[in-house]
Amino acid sequence: VDVDPPLQKLLQAVKDGVKNPGKGEAVVYWMRMEDLRTCDNRALSRASAQAQKDGIPLVLIFTVSPQDYVAHDRSPRRIDFTLRNLADIKAQLASLHIPLYVTVHTPRRTIPERVVALLQGWKARHLFANIEYEVDELRRDIKVCELAKPAGIGAHFVHDRCLVDPGIVLTKNGRVYTVYSPFQRNWLDRLNSNLKWIEEEPLPLPNSEDIYFNTTLKALFDVKIPDHVDGFECKDRETMRDVWPTGTEAAKQILARFLHTKARSTQMGPSNPLSEGAESSEKKARALVYKDSRDKADKDTTSRLSPYLAAGVISARECVRQAMKLQGLNKIQATRDTGLGTWLMEIAWRDFYNHVLSAYPRVSMGRPFQEKYANVKWEVNDEHFQAWKEGRTGLPIVDAGMRQVATMGWMHNRLRMITATYLVKDLMIDWRLGEKYFMEILMDGDLASNNGGWQWSASTGTDPQPYFRIFNPYSQSEKADPTGDYIRHFVPELRDLRGPEIHKPPEKVCRKLGYPLPLVKHEEARQRALRRYKNPGEE
Ligand code: FAD
Question: How does residue 276 score in pLDDT terms, banded at 50, 70 and 90?
């Protein structure tokens, strides 16, 4: 399945496209679910430049595709986030006389025909879009190129999502790295020798007032953004709208909060990252102490930018530029020596998983990266799976994490690792079920990072170490939540427990408090996992 990665085919199709499509009457930028911003956006920047050069209007389109949302297990929360960010962008652009046209389209396989027909109807000769690295999306865009060519339309697909574009960070043998540390070193060298890659993309706005003389284009201003997508109604939309405010300005404030303000212990959530919490005893801003505090879930220590980065409401380039300003250095220092350096290394993980996804499409097709683990024997136990989802496993740290994600659509990274390894190694339930559930519930659900995180936890991914990755959930709990405040916050049944009991409540305390007993015994489960990974296919 990886023999012919579709990314290469798409890049070739773009190269083989129409060379001089002419001017036409409009230039179109096709916005995707991962680039919901107007500033620092490569495809939009190029579309704007083209429209300005040709002296014709710029038009934005967005295709809502319910079948894709089913195929990708998109969470209603993320879809609602998309729609409200689109509404924000539409309002901003209207004042610049640029329409954003949102269309709902089914079936998904005819989206290319629909988009090309729209361009023909508007007499547009140029289409610009940022590349999506998921296999279905790459195949869709290859088809767009195939249809655009005979229609005389130039289709321009450009890289934008990563700090370093896929295909550039390669081993000596010209292969994509499958181990993070050497990837990260090479990635950093590349970036530091090409700092222009992270420069802000200009937005040369075309003179679009002429658009009002074109009745077809003028009518696009009146097309409303849908309020919701049928089948994907967000049940807690008011809470989500409060917890995750809309728009690039909010994302920039959340970035500034991380870089310049101290962690607040009361902001565990569900709470808006910008709301004021009680004073904390920290001496330095979150970013500066990140190296030592990032694995602590009992304080609000990380950036909480993932929903904004996943949806492209803010660019990764902007994060790095602001971090560099704070570092006061003229090169990027992404090493574990400092808080900020450690944070930049986390952002490198985002690039790493996108590079893996674009080179090894099998990971987005439900296949383990390590084929040798394709036949590991999984338990089919709906009762256990349900208990995990609902935070009723009897393991306080796991239950706290699962309840956090249920209430706020986000979970601390260490907790994602603990809850994921618990599902896979302790309950021995197929990692793909956990991956799907996370996508359905997360606000920051992103195929590359979620799949990477799940395959890492399941030891089926890049760089696996099955033996060492069977976490002991009790010692993990003590490290991730040393005060116990995180568990007390999300598992109120245990709010009166103090000291070590909070991590492993005795049986009689559980019975008294109405808290479930552990579903499995960790040591037995660990032995079972070791056995099954060693001999895939066997009991
Ligand atoms: P910070 O610690 O402030 O990090 C800054 C940014 O770096 C993040 O916003 C994110 O964009 C990136 N980043 C950090 N850690 C990772 C990582 N391990 N892999 C990839 N990118 C990273 N992240 C998602 O964005 N979407 C997902 O669907 C997702 N699913 C995950 C599933 C599992 C099982 C695991 C173990 C991890 C998953 N992650 C996912 C990665 C990580 O947990 C989140 O990015 C992080 O918790 C977001 O919080 P933050 O913005 O405060 O992160």
Answer: low
Atom of ligand 1 nearest to the CA of 411: 47
Catalytic one among 431, 435, 451, 456?
431
Find the 449 Cα to ligand 1 centroid distance in Å. 7
Q: How far does the centroid of ligand 1 lie from the alpha carbon of residue 416, in Å?
A: 9
Using DSSP's 3-state secondary structure scheme, residue 473 falls into helix
Radius of gyration in angstroms for the set of CA atoms belonging to the chain, rounded to a whole number: 24
DSSP string, 395-434: -HHHHHHHHHHHHHS---HHHHHHHHHIIIIIS---HHHH
Of 103, 120, 117, nearest in space to 223 by CA: 103
355, pLDDT greater than 80:
yes
Confidence of residue 277 (pLDDT cuts 50, 70, 90): low
Note the Cα 437 to chain centre separation in Å.
15
CA of 44 to the centre of ligand 1 (A): 26
346 carries an active-site annotation: yes
- Of the residues 30, 187, 343, 349, which is catalytic? 349
Distance 307 CA to ligand 1 centre (A): 9
**What is the mean predicted confidence (pLDDT) over 214-234?**
96
Is residue 181 exposed (0-12), middle (13-18) or buried (19+ Cβ within 10 Å)? exposed
273 — pLDDT class (breaks 50, 70, 90)? confident
Take residue 150 and report the two structure tokens written for it: 């005979």
Q: What is Dmax (Cα atoms) for the chain?
A: 78
- First-last CA distance in the chain: 29
Q: Across the strands, what pairs with 103? A: 63
Mutate which of 72, 184, 346, 423 to test ligand 1's pocket (most atoms within 8 Å of Cβ)? 346
Place of tokens 């002419």: 22
Name the residue with the closest Cα to ligand 1, atom 47: 413
The pTM of this model reads 0.97
